[in-house]
Amino acid sequence: MTQHLPVLQVVIPLVLAPLCVLVRHPRAAWALAALGSLCAFGIALDIVSTVLASGPLSYDVGDWAPPWGIEYRIDAVNAWILVIVSLVSTAVVFFARASVEREVEASRVALFYAAYLLCLSGLLGIAATGDVFNVFVFLEISSLSAYALIALGQDRRALAAAFRYLIMGSVGATFIVIGIGLMYATTGTLNMADLADRLPGVWHVRTIKVAYGFLAVGCFLKLALFPLHLWLPNAYTFAPSAVTAFMAATATKVAVYMLLRFFFTIFGAAFSFDVMNLDMVLMPLAVAAIFSMSFVAILQTNVKRLLAYSSVAQIGYMILGISFASVTGLTAAVLHLFNHALMKGALFMALGCVAYRIGSVHIDAMAGLGKRMPATMAAFVVGGLSLVGVPLTVGFVSKWYLILAALERGWWPLAVIVLITSVMALAYVWRVIEAAYFREFPGDRETREAPAALLVPTWALVVLNVYFGIDATRTVGVAERAAEILMGAAP
Question: Most buried one in 22, 381, 419, 490, CB count within 10 A?
Fold first, then answer.
């Protein structure tokens, strides 16, 4: 059975999704979703330990040998992504039991969990597959289910947000499949490892450079890189709380993984940075994202929208690390994939607790909640400090490696930018803290702490924010191994 784990990682939630529709009962559908997430998380932990100890895993689907057959190939890079996605999914699904019952119509709860499992399966499939066309297939599975999840939001504007995401997501997917088609037309293969072997011989062909451009734009749209981020703020703001937490912590991270896999593993760092000069595109866009989106976040009054713009800025940090094209820079980027998933998952789940009790996540509505909902607001404070990059949190570890990467290159102005924008993050986090702890609570409003069903999974991510901020040995080790693989310095 163990040799089938790479494919079971994807198949289990995929099979459980239609069962949620068949059982129809909300609690039974939730149990199936929890089972799927737990299985995926357990398998991911087993896979990452095996990969780190013994090297990459390869699974031939249907016993068709690659490159003719579909291959699932897992190394330290995508094993790390599998852990991120399944960990967050497990935390969110336990949070969702109470949250979804409050925010989604009872008749649609089973459909919600079916879409949730499909999205989970799609994201895991993108990470696990070693076939570029399968990347597109799983991308469509995750995207279509994400559109449905967003549209289930209570606010009617959720439909408009889902439609905008549908349009921009479809454009991004179209660009990606065109790029894949052009590569196939030139090389005659869809297997990632085979493409990596064949592409150096056709770097000079114009078709390959055009394919590179299509893939770049498609990935930029999917990961919400400034200025192609316009779908993200409304999607995060109007989706149900559990959906926002899940998407913010996983969807864009998988899209960043796609960029890494295409431009470092398939095309290679030499072609991407020496021939196509990818750093000349990524670095200015990353800096623009970090500055502009941090400033826009400061101006927001809806805290979900505030954190949505913050997510675009945080994506900028990841892209900045990638643009350094060094092991240290990639270590910072890969490390921040995990760390940002923990902090944003915790923050959006804390907001879900607030929405559960007071029905709003506007800053003014959160006045005085520090005393009425102490555990919830304490979770938000810890997550916010991690977002800022305060020592003893995961955010500090990410920014430390990002600054090291900048100084390693001799680009100290970029290190200064990281520090300045951290202060900007403090400014928008402080606006929420000030309202919760330093404003008077309206005397005519009854509010009590969120139920344990919401607080336990929220605090699970909060604790991980602190634990991996104090002891980052494991996370840094995996990130360094993944960076060496991407740069071609390790097998």
Answer: 381
